[in-house]
Amino acid sequence: METRHLTCICCPIGCQLEVKMENGEVISVTGNNCPRGAAYGRKEVTDPTRIVTSSVRVSGSVTGAKAVSCKTAGDIPKGKIFDAIRDIADVIVPAPVHIGDVVKANVADTGVDMVATKEVI
Amino acid sequence: MYDVIIIGGGVIGCAVARYLSHYHASVCLVEREEDVCSGTSKANSGLIHAGFDAPHGSLMAKYNVEGSKMMPALAKELDIPFRRNGAMVLCLNEEDVPRLEALYENGVKNGVEGLELIGPDRIHEIEPNVTDDAVAALYAPTAGIVCPFLMTVAFAENASVNGVEFKLDTEVKAITPAAEGGWTVQTEAGVLKAKCVVNAAGVYSDVFHNMVSAGRKLHITPRRGDYCLLDHTAKDLTDCTIFQVPGKLGKGVLITPTVHGNIILGPTAVSIEDREGVNTTAAGLSELLNKAGATVKQLPANQVITSFAGLRAHEDGHEFIVGEVEDAPGFFNCAGIESPGLSSAPAIGKAVAEMLRDKLSLSEKEDFIPTRRGILDPKTLSREERNALIKEQPAYGQIICRCENVTEGEIIDAIRRPVGARSLDGVKRRVRAGMGRCQAGFCSPRVIEILARELGVESSEITKSGGKSNFIVGTTKDRY
Amino acid sequence: MKEVDIVIIGGGPAGLAAAVSAYDAGVRSILILERDKELGGILNQCIHNGFGLHTFKEELTGPEYAQRFADQVRERSIAYKLNTMVLEISRDKVVTAMNREDGLFDIQAKAVVLAMGCRERSRGALNIPGFRPAGVYSAGTAQQLVNIEGYMPGREVVILGSGDIGLIMARRMTLEGAKVKAVAELMPYSGGLKRNIVQCLDDFGIPLLLSHTVVDIHGKERVTGVTIAEVDGNLKPIPGTEAFYSCDTLLLSCGLLPENELSRAMGVEMNRATNGPVVNESLETSVSGVFAAGNVLHVHDLVDYVSEEAGAAGRAAAEYVRSGGEHSGGHEIPVATEGGPRYTVPCTIGPQKVGETLTLRFRVGSVMKDRFVSVYLDDERVTRRKRQVMAPGEMEEVKLTRTMFDKHPDLQRITVKVEEA
Fold first, then answer.
1. I need a labelling partner for B200 at 20 to 30 A (CA). Which of B7, B81, C101, C266 fits?
2. pTM, to two decimals
3. How do residues B384-418 score in pLDDT, each as one tens digit?
4. Phi then psi dihedrals of residue B206, to 5 deg
């Protein structure tokens, strides 16, 4: 039986979770204040994922903006964070850009899009 | 071949350049940093001493008193922020009173006007915040404060307008006699020749003197002084410059207002070997806060917004070395210029210019432009004038440095003028952007953009103070 | 001179929320003055997640959160000026501002909402000795360069300060291709959210050095390294523990200071514990008709609370304008504290002016476990809430109601107590 101690990252409270595992299977999660914490505890030890936020270059902005912030539309495997960053390194999006616009579809082959999070004119 | 090459773009070199530009002569000032005012001239107390401190009969005394007398007219001519705020040397112990009296006598002999020995009542009448431990003080009403950056820049701009050539980023490597007479000055950018050379090289002035003279060798020990700068909110601490009775290593830690409404504490005095050792130390900062704290009732130490250090060019003889070197004709020293160097700059500049005039039989220019208008500060204009200016030049309507209230128009002016700013520190010294309480946190990205645009270079090429002091190392994800 | 009912200084999250709520409370003559080229304030450079959980029940990035409020401002056609710097506010609420198009101009306001946010503590204010090379940045300035301008300020980074900005920048710099060698923190605990320790440091193997600080900066032109030392119980460096970390960048995340230059210049009474104005239950300062909200009032951790607070200030400003300034003054009771709170916002409460609800916010001075937070009106406890953990880095809230005050017509004392369980 293995016990892992984690901090939940779902919300700013940051509950201290205790996850008990046996043979790679999660037996229990305790310490969470809400169901999201239990789900996170389970996921973090079996298939950890993250939302990645970054920025990409913008061209042709009338306000002279040089970059637009972006995020993965959903979480992606933690191990693919840098692949996702590499995959958007050469992206240049033309202005105007709207929140939710796809700046890179299926980033790093995760099935998740990288979308803009800022309005740029 | 130039008539004169001046080595060093600090306040002394620029002063010599300015006074020399009165005369018909080809003059070139070489400075190894990217801007004038990059050495000791940018890290000192900003004082125009009354002149009571320098030993009677010395060049220090002579040039200090003369420089102090020249300042009011010069400040008007060249638009240099300067005012006579007065100074007080405090005696905190009865047994130091004789030293105070000796200082007074020395000052009178030096020709300083208005000196007074005063007691505790008068001390507190003038400056209520002075410590109650003060038993006596020497009061010097003619002591003044000046902006050392603008003083140096004003000399440089006026010299440039009157024909002096400035070669910045040009380090002098060696000086040798030229076969045809005069001097060969070797720099990294090539060889220059001149009939006469002026050595105003600050902490390196001994190095250049010793290259040309077989006689007395000069030896300079850099003597570092740490300073702290207090926010404008501390400005009511004192209006007078407050000293303590001087010790062996110098005038000691002082408290002074600056012309821009800050308070400076410092300097300490530590002899070091590194001629580039302008780093502050924990011990130095702690020492100066303690010593300054001894002279006033309540030192607002939590109002410190920055600290810095400067190096005094202390020569073994503790005296200015000004004039032609006997066994190196045409080589003129301005060496060992430690305190009261800033105060003496106008006098030294004029004296050395006149020495060169006589040496080279120079004639006076008819079209010499004696005056300079400084960088326009829109805050000094009336509302109507300011709005008229903004209509004509909208850049004056955009605040870039919010702590010191500096507009884009002023920054552009600082860059475009003769011997203009080419780095963030250059802009800072000329218009104060970055000198306020947030210490360039807000304005530096904006100033970088303005410099890049004005100089026609990439933002990544903009530096803090030339050389490799770039701010930006690349663009995001450029390593992938 | 132009006249505007409510002038709002700052178009960041506080200013935007105050504008929207003032409008919804019935005032139409509103003007937001913003110094940046767009609305949104500091949120524009906070491109990370974690905003809006309370307000929108969604997790948004900073720019997305800001856009929600900017949209609300535009939907209501509330007036705003960009690239406009406020230079002065007089005691009679004449606001002097400047921009390229209008030049220098005055506006007579009936009410003013201060929403200027805060700035970062600089290296100079921290008295860190050493050289002064390029490469020393406050974390926020580096964030601006990376997120807005797309520049890298350095390649090998040491960060001083484990507050959220420092932690966020540790991750940001790593993702953009830099190597973050360590985050040093003066205190024995981190000031940032635990989730940020996980997502920004643990995820990338960046060491967190608690009870450490930077004692020297090396490099004459550009940073070449820093010396980090351990500190003792008095936060003083311990001689002999110094270690050199080579790097070309030092980021400082050592505290935020509310930007109250304008407030101080107009004579607003300041609270030394928060560095923000002293305010009453309506978030009104000591100058009648001048309100404050957001980071300029006290430094917040969650923008959701900023929006709530600013919403209350906007409503109060609207009430002030509609009542012709009569909804001001009157008997106010100072809020006393016991057992832990370093300060409270508001500092005073005028019971007759309390609306349906009143949110009281505070921070504790040290980490506290297993406590109750209670509010007493005279000797009666009117609310009590269990708190498992409280930390200086996490702002606390207590909600009071109009009903509670109605039950105490001759109220003398208000006390916020942190009590042992």
1. B81
2. 0.95
3. 999 999 999 999 999 999 999 999 999 999 999 99
4. -70, -35
